[in-house]
Amino acid sequence: MPSTLTEKTSTSTLSRTQARKFFLFGAVGLLILALDQATKAWVLHAMPLYSQKKIIPGFFNLVHVRNTGVAFSIFAGTENPWRVPVLAALTVVALAVIFFLYRESRPEERVKRVALSLIAGGALGNLVDRVRFGNVVDFLDFYIGPYHWPAFNVADMAVTVGAALLGVSLLRGEKPPWSHP
């Protein structure tokens, strides 16, 4: 009987560990999704399309633009009827890969898990826009003089920070899941 009790305790602990691990994924991902969608809703409500509000002259504006492409407006302006379904499908595939990487991560790989959670939340935020509007709402415009960084949004920031953290986790020696014995 004691071995059965030990097995149940071990299984129960594993389940709680897994639950905590996935709570982080869901909490961070949903927080990013909610923040992204709330800020975009404000832009849609407060700013007409193609308008801008100077916040820090010579450095930062709020704008209301639409990105029909992907990051940094790659593939923007393409009027192919398959553009939205293909980009949405690629996002779903990327989310599946992110979920797999997260599931395979070890509990001590905290930086990697936060990174993947940020990337997933950002991908979901832009996927919602793509499905709803056929494009992504961008509104943060940083620039110096005439040199503008492409406009972006909260989801883009989460993906960028997540990718940087993922790079840090790999540099710190957190092994990719396919290298685990």
TrEMBL record:
Metabolic or biological pathway: Protein modification; lipoprotein biosynthesis (signal peptide cleavage)
Catalytic activity: Release of signal peptides from bacterial membrane prolipoproteins. Hydrolyzes -Xaa-Yaa-Zaa-|-(S,diacylglyceryl)Cys-, in which Xaa is hydrophobic (preferably Leu), and Yaa (Ala or Ser) and Zaa (Gly or Ala) have small, neutral side chains
Active site: 138, 156
Alphabetical keyword list: Aspartyl protease, Cell membrane, Hydrolase, Membrane, Protease, Transmembrane, Transmembrane helix
GO CC annotation terms, alphabetical: plasma membrane
E.C. no: 3.4.23.36
Subcellular location: Cell membrane
InterPro entries: Peptidase_A8 (IPR001872)
One MF annotation (Gene Ontology) recorded for this entry: aspartic-type endopeptidase activity
PROSITE patterns: SPASE_II
Membrane topology: Multi-pass membrane protein
Any one Gene Ontology BP term: proteolysis
Transmembrane segment boundaries: 22-43, 82-102, 114-131, 151-171
The protein's enzyme class: hydrolase
Family, per entry: Belongs to the peptidase A8 family.
Classification via PANTHER family: LIPOPROTEIN SIGNAL PEPTIDASE
Matching NCBIfam families: lspA (TIGR00077)
Biological function: This protein specifically catalyzes the removal of signal peptides from prolipoproteins.
Protein name: Lipoprotein signal peptidase
Record organism: Desulfosoma caldarium
Gene giving rise to this polypeptide: lspA
